[in-house]
Amino acid sequence: MKHYRNYIQGEWRESSRRFDDHNPVDGSVFAQVHEASQADVGDAIRAGHAALAGAWGRTTPGERAEMLYAIANGIDKRHDDFLAAEMADTGKPLAMASTIDIPRGAANFRVFADLIKTAPLDCFRTDLPGGARALNYTVRKPLGVVGIISPWNLPLLLFTWKVAPALACGNAVVAKPSEETPGTATLLAEVMHEVGVPAGAFNLVHGFGPGSAGEFITTHPDINAITFTGESRTGSAIMRAAAEGVKPISFELGGKNAAIIFADCDFDRMLDGMVRAVFLNSGQVCLCSERVYVERSLYPRFCEALAERAAQLRLDWPSDPATQMGPLISAEHRNKVLKYFDLAREEGARFLAGGGVPRFGDARDQGYWVEPTIIAGLPDDARCATEEIFGPVCHIAPFDTEAEAIARANATRYGLAATIWTSNLERGHRVAEAMRVGLSWVNSWFLRDLRTPFGGAGLSGIGREGGQHSLNFYSELTNVCIQINQETP
Ligand code: NAD
């Protein structure tokens, strides 16, 4: 049995309160997670402040960049360990974890190492009418101790997406991975230790949200900023906690993302793209398309083709390189998804594919699997067409005009991402810009440049991270203004 411990002030800390870590493929328990107490979280935050007051607080951007490269190399060196831990926690297929989760976890450190070395800062010379002159320049400083809370769907990738820029900017962090996926974050702490990240600069605490490590972090008076990825409802709770003390927050939240498919698209390319957009990671990516709008002339062909592809997806053990889809993260999450399938039936949906639980006749029958599922025939205001389900499922509806498609795609309180499929260049630009989202893809999906802004509108988040946007969130910027002559301003 593995043990996932807390990492506080450069040391591993056990806890008498432990919880089970399940493998979603077959429901087996393979690790014990040591839940951090309120005192542990307090110690981690104190360790962060001590690191800032000590050697870590005196590091230069160049030195921190070298540290980040070493962390990235450390992840690469232990690639197989990270891969095994991520697959055990999530059940996601090797084909995905080895090409997306683990390499992107390392890439996040390299990207922010590169950026912090070359990050531009403002400099303005002011010339006032009476002759006074001044030089203004910006100084970038850390915010302090940043609380990082991440979800289970892309555990290493989303954890490092915040840890890397926070450290690049010279902050100390107290980070909590999801209780469902503590594995790769714990390995990352081992790498931090191995490469010599100063004690207290990176602290890892395990636990749940309310009444546990998540709440202890967000309500602690000495946390200086909070960055969170997860459900919109959790975002509201964290925002209330952050209001006390007016803490800076950055939120990447849920979505109910639209795909708009025009009849003039390259059908085969679009179909491949939509299979990914609906079923990647069993639909457990915040960017997945759950609402698909298809131009009416293409609607029957698309419905049939996507249903056929859904039925062909290979659901198998994660270690098999040919596996295309794994289970859901937990029994609880599967119940939620299955309840939406029941609700869709009550709401009058037609099931074009799936709608149930696959049977394997082996240990996987104790896991948390659901079939790739496609529904149709619901009105736009049905609950299954408006609420985030976060499973391998989409609803397909026909549309007649571009304006109608845009209006229906935007008729949501979420606003994370959209994907648009057309061969008409002008229309691609026009529709992409009209989407009220943080990220519009044209003829693609989940194609990311880590330097670009990432975040959502409406219920999907507050602020943008990525590239320079991350550096700005994780920094306190001070403008220094020096008068360079004697004239009275
Ligand atoms: P979640 O909100 O249930 O949990 C996320 C994290 O918050 C976990 O670590 C959890 O322990 C912690 N938490 C829960 N309640 C808390 C509280 N009251 N105070 C402090 N911490 C608390 O989300 P999840 O189920 O892990 O992840 C799935 C959700 O995340 C989906 O809604 C998905 O769309 C969203 N998501 C968004 C993005 C994005 O970039 N916008 C990316 C991935 C996932």
Walk me through the structure:
The chain has 489 residues and is α/β, with parallel strands linked by helices. The chain folds into 2 domains: 2-253 and 456-479, Aldehyde Dehydrogenase, Chain A, domain 1; 257-442, Aldehyde Dehydrogenase, Chain A, domain 2, CATH 3.40.309. It contains 15 helices and 21 strands. The chain has helices spanning 38-53, 61-77, 79-90, 94-118, 155-168, 183-195, 213-218, 232-243, 267-279, 299-312, 331-346, 383-386, 402-410, 425-434, 467-473, and strands at 2-4, 6-8, 11-13, 18-22, 29-34, 123-127, 133-142, 145-149, 172-176, 202-204, 225-229, 249-252, 257-261, 289-295, 350-353, 373-376, 393-399, 417-421, 439-442, 461-462, 475-483. The strands form 5 sheets. Strands 15-16-17-14-13-18-19 form a 7-stranded mixed β-sheet, with helices on both faces. A 6-stranded mixed β-sheet has the order 10-9-8-11-12-20, with helices on both faces. α5 links the parallel β8 (145-149) and β9 (172-176). α2 (61-77) packs across α6.
Beta-strand percent range: 15-25%
By DSSP, the count of extended strands is 21
The strands making up the biggest β-sheet line up spatially as 15-16-17-14-13-18-19
The geometry reads as: globular
Instruction: Tell me the number of helical segments per DSSP (H or I, 4 or more residues long).
Output: 15
Q: What Rg is obtained from the alpha carbons, in whole angstroms? A: 24 Å
Poorly predicted runs of 5 or more residues: none
